[in-house]
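Q: My labmate handed me this sequence with no annotations at all. I'd like to see what the chain might look like in three dimensions before we decide whether it's worth expressing. Could you predict it?
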Amino acid sequence: MKAALATFKQLSTLDHAMISHESEAYIEKAADQLVDWVLAMDFNDLQLVDQVRNALFELGAEEQAAYWQLNKRLIHPLQQLMADTDAGGKVSKLLAQLSQQVADMQPPQRRLSWRERFLLLFSWRESAYQMWLDNFPEKRKVMVGLVEQLNAEKRQLMRDNQILNGDHEALMAGLQKLTQSFDFVTVFEQQLKLRSADTLTISAHHLAVIDDELLGPVQQRLIDLQQQSLIARQAMMTVELIIKQNQSLIRDIDQTVMTTTAALDVAAGVAMANNNQRQQKHAEHFRIDTAKLEQAKVLIDQTLEHMQQVSDDSSAALHEIEPENNQN
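A: Here is what I predict for the chain of 328 residues:
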């Protein structure tokens, strides 16, 4: 009896490497061999029937257990990485801070705002433009610091995606094995039903045992494997969304740093040019280079517009991830 049951377990164990090469042909052949064994067993041996029934409850259990172990190993790092995509994450905060700094760096307009007029009222400086020039070095230092932090976050996102890509491959391999097991059990159930319906070779007693004792466990395993496969697909989709979100953040950082640096360079050029004029002509009122000033304003406006688009895109991507989180 032990030898017979060992043969059953051997026939019900899949060689997933072979399936990858032969797929449907291998699964059909393996299912047919298992059906042959079941139909040829001694249906009058109640102990054997009971053992086979219990063994049928284990179809695909090895693949299912392997996936749960993988899921258990990945759940904590995945939760941590998903927490990093929250709107309160470092990248979002740094982008918001940089956006505010870019707005504050904007050169004064000909018609001053109420804030500029208020600050100028309590300043020793002759004009709002002079106040902007004097404050520019400190604002530039803050912005350079924010850009450096964003570049550091970009490197971290790239490392995260390397880890996530490895996790995605592992999840895909686990899902593939679950799917193959589900396909095997499906073909086995179909063949068992079809061949046991042949009344010329199958007795009424055998058919009753198959219907009452064996098909139930097989159908339960189909339900279990299908549910496990759905959970595995949801996990893969979540990982894919996080990878895409990180890729989007990396692109946003690159574009934001590029446009911010361009605006900063032009504004720095304006500040340096006028500072040189002041040093050369202390007595003479220095002239503002209106062309460069207008160029700085345009670039800063474009940078602010781009940052708003980055914020909108990030929010939209986060909304895609949140439903997945809620389902899991």
